[in-house]
Design goal:
With about 190 residues, the chain is an all-alpha fold. It has a two-stranded antiparallel ribbon. The radius of gyration is 39 Å and the shape is flat. It starts with 5 loop residues before the first helix and ends in a 7-residue tail after the last helix. About 45% of the residues lie in helices and about 0% in strands. A hairpin with a 6-residue loop joins strand 1 and strand 2. It is built from 5 helices and 2 strands.
Amino acid sequence: MAPATPSSDDSHQQLLDQLDLMLKPRPFRNQAWKPSQRRNKNIKQIISEASRKDASVLATQDNSGSSTPQPSTSALGTGTITPLQTNSHATHSNISQAAQNLSTLVLEKNLQASISAGPIATYTNIESAPSLHPAHQKHYCDITGLPAPYTDPKTRLRYHDKEVFGVVRSLTQGAAEKYLEARGAHVVLK
C-alpha cells in the first residue's frame, strides 16, 4: 500500500475540523432569554399581606360611615347644624387629613386588639405551643437518650440499637420499671 501524501492528509484534517461540533461555541442559555421582571413573594410575605388586608377590612367596616348616624332632615333647615364650606382647596385637605386620621385609628385599634387578645398561634409565631399529635413526637432511648426506633415488647423500654437491646434484656424487672417510671410510662396496679 502506498503511503498517504501530505496534501490528501491535509484536506482530510480540514474536513474533520469543519465537521467537528466540539469546536463550535454552544452557550448554556438561549441568547434571547431574559429574566422575568415580576418579583416573586415568599409564603410568609403573602400570608402577612393577606392578614393585614383582612384586619384592615374588618377595622374599616367598624369605622366606616355606614355605622355613623346621619342627621335628621328636619335639623338642616333649623340652623342647628352648620353647613359645610364648599371651598375646593379646604375640602381636599380635609379629605386627606381625614384619611390619615382614619388610617391611624385603624392601626391603633388593630394594635389594641392584638395586645388584648394575646398572641395568635401561626406557623411563624414562636410563642405557639408545640404539637401534641403522636405522629410528631419523637421517641428516645430510655438508656442512652439517642433516637429510639425500637421498643422491647417484654419490658416496653425503647432502645437505639442491638447493643442497647442486650443491656435492656440484662436488666432486672425492678430496674426496667424504674426506667419506665422516669419516662412516665410505668403501670402501678392496686
